[in-house]
Structure formats: structure tokens, C-alpha cells
Amino acid sequence: MAPVPEPTIYDLAYRGQAAAVKILLSENEKLKTQTDNNERMLIHWAALGGHDDLVIYLLSLGSPVDPTDDTNMTPLILASSAGREDVVKVLLKRDANVNAKTTEGHSALQYAASKNWLEICEALIKKGADINITDSRGATPLHRAASKGNLLVVKLFLDCGKDLKINATDMYGNTALHLACEEDRQEEAKLLVGKGADISLTNKEKKTPLDLAGLGLARQLKEIQQKSQSSK
């Protein structure tokens, strides 16, 4: 039976074994900025593991707050994707780049919106995250939240008012409403139309959101738009 390999310092950081990490750093402080095979530093792994105490310690030693790995992931993006709210708040207090993007153009807010981490979305927006930021396919955080059926996150974006580009289109010409209808996210679709999402916009396949919706939902969306227009 092959021996179990010793955990690396990166493994220890991910597991939150702060005492062991501190011992190794005391022996070689250069480890704080050395990278693994994915070009990740200790702070990446501590952030991903949700260990805010270790993140604070690494920052106190002079670890950079926004190092990027081989896909341009920063600690803030990793923590936001993994739902590590305490780590997110620590990094934001240290002025982490709230609008940093991966090589695919994904931001912390896009990941948080997709994963339904409402509190993290709120913290990112409060710190100045661009609610209309786009990835390499032109999708915004609203596209992600609507397609996933993350109702409270959709409401959060809609509460941003005129700052939100509710009818923004991705590279396929789809708005958030298109995606909500396609995935049968009925509450999200109705909320979007009630806040001004256009039911008549066509995507690159010449389909409107109503073309992608079930008959019942399409009827409801028409009624919501008519009521909205008549009340103006």
C-alpha cells in the first residue's frame, strides 16, 4: 500500500490549519507568496476554504490581496463563488478589486449571483461592484440569477433601479428575460416584466421571450406588461 503523501502548505491553508501554516511560514516567510501548480498562493486557498482568520494573518505578513492564479482567479472571486461571506468581507475591507475578472470574464458578483449567495451580492454591490459587468459571452449577473431562478438576487438587482441594464443582451442576443422564460423561471420572469423588461426583443434566432415561454406564462407576461403600461 502506497504511503499517503504529506499535505502541502496549500492543503493546510485550505483546511484552515493555521497553526501548522504559521510554523512553516516562520521557517520560511517566502512561502507567503510562492505559488502552486495552479499559480495559487496561500491566500487563495485560505479564502476558498473560508478561513478569514488565516486570510487576515497572511495579509498582515504582506501577502497581496489580489494575486491571480492561472485563470485570473483572485481570492475574492474564489471566496465569492464558494459562499465564504466572512472572507469576502475581510477582502473588501482591504480594498480587493471588486470587479476583477477571470480569463472567461467572470467576476465575483457573477459567481455570487449564479450561486445564489444573496449576502455576498449585497456586500459586493455596496463596495462598488458593477452590476452590469459582462463575461466573455456577454452575460451579466442578472442573466445568471434569472436563468438559475435566484429570485432574491434578481430582486436585489432590480432594486438598483436605473443603474441596472435590464434589457442587456448576451452574445446570443438573449436578455435575462429570455433566459428566465427558457428555463421556466416564472416568478423571475414576471418580476422582470413588471420592472420593465421588454417582451418583444428578439435574440439572434429571432425569438422573443414569449416564444420561449410556456403558453400560460406568456399570457401572464402580456397581462403584466399591459397593466404596467396602462398605469403610466
What is the CATH homologous superfamily assignment of the largest domain? Ankyrin repeat-containing domain
Topology pattern, helix = H, strand = E: HHHHHHHHHHHHHH
Instruction: Using the coordinates above, name the CATH class of the largest domain.
Output: Mainly Alpha
| Average pLDDT score | 96
What is the total number of structural domains? Answer: 2
Terminal Cα separation, in Å? 75 Å
Tell me the number of strands: 0
The level of helicity is 40-55%
Estimated structural class: mainly alpha
Name the shape in a single word: elongated
Largest sheet: none
How would you describe this structure to a colleague?
The protein has 232 residues and is an all-alpha fold. The model has no long low-confidence stretch (mean pLDDT 96).
Concise summary:
The chain has 232 residues and is mainly alpha-helical.
Key words describing this protein structure:
232 residues, 2 domains, Serine Threonine Protein Phosphatase 5, Tetratricopeptide repeat, mainly alpha, elongated
Helix-strand layout with pairing:
Blueprint: H1 9-15, H2 18-27, H3 42-49, H4 52-60, H5 75-82, H6 85-93, H7 108-115, H8 118-126, H9 141-148, H10 151-158, H11 176-182, H12 186-194, H13 209-212, H14 215-230
Helix pairs in contact: 1-2, 1-3, 3-4, 3-5, 4-6, 5-6, 5-7, 6-8, 7-8, 7-9, 9-11, 10-12, 11-12, 12-14
